[in-house]
């Protein structure tokens, strides 16, 4: 039975491109928690009050309408403005570099979302550690499709809701193995799941530094994984994913016209953009002026099903 929808219209003070902003929340085209259908975005989430499905439709450049179903509907809609980036303050962001200035003009609706749901960003970030993105996305899809629950409401194309922390923690090693997850990432994901409720409570308190300390205290969670989580769940516009396979190339080609090779070099080049360094990285990744040499993935694709 379809439950009655809760509705909300959000009017923003600045333009927003919901599709572009929320594309960071999507883990591959087959992500069972996310669909873009007929001009609307459908997402599922697991709020503290329960699972929820939300359909978001952009009615104007500053007007977004949402309908939500499930026990977590009111909680999600209360947090929707932050998830759309209304707390994302671009004040003081440097547009002195031509590539950055051009990207800002091309993508005025880009915002850094703050979903507030740590585990939903942390587990897929762990799955993305040291592997090709397509393989990580396939693992996420298999795990959520099998162990997630059906989305409430008239869910588009059989959406699923991510498992809760207890379910993640209880998954036996062979379920991760069947999804192509190696033992190291499996152990990190389970360590995250065991402290998942604590991480959510720390994040809800709004202390960004404390949340990062809590994330980094989990064995296997380093600066890259914490940053990937922070740029989605915490709305952190300064969350640079140091250690990313393509970061040095992107920043180097985009800002100084040559490849960089170390995180120290990347940090030096990005320093003028602090405390919005991730925004600069995101804009460079979108910019058509930044032409990176494409050679395909050089990271080895390991078949973890055979390990």
From TrEMBL:
Any single biological process term in GO: base-excision repair, AP site formation
One cellular-component annotation, GO: protein-DNA complex
Source domain of life: Bacteria
InterPro entries: Alkylbase_DNA_Glycosylase/TA, DNA_glycosylase
Bilayer-spanning residue ranges: none
GO molecular function, one term: DNA-3-methyladenine glycosylase activity
UniProt keywords, alphabetically: DNA damage, DNA repair
Protein name: DNA-3-methyladenine glycosylase 2 family protein
Annotated source species: Aeromicrobium terrae
